[in-house]
Amino acid sequence: MAVIRLGYVHVRVTDLAQARQHYQETLGMDAVHEEDGRVYLKSWDEDDHHSVVLEEGGVGLVKFGYKVTADGALDAIESKARSFGATCERMSKGDNVGVGDGLRVTLPSEHVLELYSDVDYLGTRVGKLNPDPWPRDLRGIGVPRINHALITTEDPALLERFFSDVLAFRPSERLVASHEDSDLVGSWMSCGDQPHDIAFVKGANGKLHHFAYEIDDWSALLRAGDVMSMDDVPIDFGPARHGITRGGTIYFFDPSGNRNEVFSGGYRTGPDFRPITWTMDQAARGINYTHREIDQEFLQVVT
Amino acid sequence: MLVVTVVPQDVQVRARAGESVVDALRRHGWRSPYRCRRGGCGACRARLLSGRIRYPLPVAESVLTPAEQAAGQCLPCRAVPVTDVVLDIGPHPLRAVLASTPSPDPRPQEGL
User: Fold this and answer.
1) In this predicted structure, what is the pLDDT of residue B107?
2) For A232, phi and psi rounded to 5 degrees?
3) Is B83 on the interface with A (CB under 8 A)?
4) What is the CATH number of the domain that holds B40?
5) Is residue A108 one of the residues assigned to a domain?
6) Among A12, A27, A89, A233, fewest CB within 10 Å belongs to which?
7) How far is CA A141 from the centre of its chain?
8) CATH of the domain at A92
9) Complex-level ipTM
C-alpha cells in the first residue's frame, strides 16, 4: 500500500472571478468543471480530473487530497488512522466531483485530508501516444502540475509521527530547535522520490502556508516571474534557492491572499534516504539559501 | 484626490480614485507593513482613526471580522478611502522604496 502523490488542493477564495483569472490566465490551468460557486481546475500535464478546487467565500484551505494505490491501501490506512486515534470517515463517490469513494481523515493538526484511488481520468494535454513535450497553446506560466503543500501545526512532532506511522511518509529534512523530539519545528516528508510531498512547520492548526506547482527549471522559474510582473501578482520572495530540498522557488499570492509557489528541481529521495537536519540558527539559509534572511512574517503569514 | 495620513509616522500622501491605502503609499515611495497585498493574511491590519473607507473586493471574515471592522480595524491593502482618512498603522517604521505599479498599456492607441 502506498500514497502516490498530492492529488488536489481545495481552497477558499474571496472572489471567484478574480481567482479564475489568476489560476487560469496567470498560472495557465484549465477549468474542467464548475458548479455551486466552485471551479475545478487541472494543469496540462496532469491525468486526473482536477488538482485545484476554488470555492467562493473566505480564504484558506478547505481540504486536500492524496491519491493512493488501489490495492487495499484505503482499508489499511483507515485501520492505522483509527489506531492512531485520528477521526476518519468514509467519503462517497461524488462528494468531490470526479473523485470516487475514499477516506476522509482529520489530521492531528485539524486539517482535513482525503485519500482516494478512484478518480476520473481526463489525460494530459499532450496525450500518451507519441506526445509532444508540451502543448502549443499554454497560457501564462503554463504550470504542468501541482507538487506539494506546506501546512502549519501546533505539534509538528505529532504530525510527523502521523504521516510516518499511518501514511508511510518519510522525513527528508527536519528543522529542529534542539535534540528533543518535542522541539521539532518543521518536517519535509516524502511518499515517493521527491524531497517532499507534504511539509509542515510549527504554527496555528488548520492553516495553509502554501501549495506549490512544479515547473521545469531555473529558466522556467524566471519566466514565471516575468508573467507575475505582467499580471501584478504580489511576490513574497524569490526567485531564490531553498537550502531545504535544494529547489528553486518563487512564493507569490493569489488574489485572495492564499500563498502559491512555483518550485523547480530538488534532489531525489527514496526509502533508504537518511533525513537531513537543519538547526534554527541556520533556518534562514534553509528556507532562502540565496539571501540567508527571511522576514519573521514569512513563517507566520498563513491563510 | 483624497488625503491619506498614516500615524504614528505622520506621513501624508494623496490617493487616486479607487486606489488602496497601501497602493497610494507605495506609489509615493513608502513601504508600509503588508505581506499578501490581497486581504488574505492580515499582516497590514491597522486602525482607522478618521474618515471612511470601502472594500471594492470582499475581504474574508476570518481575516477581519465584522466586530473588528465595527471597532475601527481595517486592512489597508484592500481599503479604498472614500473621504480623507487617518490610519494608525502601528509603530513599525515606513521603509522608503521605489515601487512600480502595473505599467499602462504600452500599445499605441488608435488615433494618437
Assistant:
1) 58
2) 50, 50
3) no
4) 3.10.20.30
5) yes
6) A89
7) 18
8) 3.10.180.10
9) 0.87
User: Number of CB pairs < 8 Å for A and B?
Assistant: 63
* Contact criterion met (CB below 8 Å) for A4 and A192: yes
pLDDT at B49 over 80: yes
The C-alpha cell at A4 is: 502516490
Q: Which residue of B has its CA nearest to A207?
A: B41
**Looking at residue A297, what is its pLDDT?**
85
CA-to-CA distance for B57 and B76, rounded, in angstroms? Answer: 13
Is A82 in the same domain as A13?
A: yes
pLDDT at A273: 96
Q: What is the largest CA-CA distance in chain B?
A: 52
Which residue range forms the structural domain that includes residue A102? 3-116
pLDDT of A207-219, one tens digit each?
999 999 999 999 9
A23 contacts A163 by C-beta, under 8 angstroms: no
What's residue A262's pLDDT?
Answer: 98
**What is d(CA A246, CA B21) in angstroms, rounded to the nearest whole number?**
38
C-alpha cell at B83: 473621504
| Number of other residues whose CB lies within 10 A of the CB of residue A84 | 15
Instruction: Confirm whether A251 is a catalytic residue.
Output: yes
Give the chain B residue whose CA is nearest to the CA of A237. B35
The minimum CA-CA distance between B38 and chain A, rounded to whole Å, is 5
Dist. CA A251–CA A256, nearest whole Å: 14
Under 8 Å between Cβ of A125 and A143: no
Query: SS3 letters for A23-69?
Result: HHHHCCCEEEEEECCEEEEECCCCCECCCEEEEECCCEEEEEEEEEC
pLDDT digits (tens, 9 = 90+) for A55-104: 999 999 999 999 999 988 999 999 999 999 999 999 999 899 999 999 99
* Contact of A98 with A40, CB cutoff 8 Å: yes
